Amino acid sequence: MADVNRGNRPLSPHLTIYRPQLTSMTSILTRITGNAMLVAALMIVWWFLAAASSPEYFAIANGFVTSWFGDLIMFLSLLGLWYHTLAGIRHLIWDNGHGMDIKTAEKLGLACLIGSVVLTILTALIV
Q: pTM above the 0.70 mark?
């Protein structure tokens, strides 16, 4: 039977008092970067398909990929790739049962964030 008082019940207090932790935010960011890298992957596939199609179509795709917006997408995808890789290594460490205490988990989260920025800048400068 349906609950008649469903609309009259108060909301759970966690909505107003919850403070996000670094570990939960880095876990969510791992999922976001994994999905966001699909944009760059689709852009690269489009570029390859255009190269196989015709010179005119390749000129359009290449113009987009090498534009400032395409460069921004590729740079952010590089950042996402490095972050996702470092977060995967962090999860491999956790899968072995190491670094599960809060202090170490937060240090690993900071290492992922800082490391991904540093590695992205180094990669962009070298390539």
A: yes
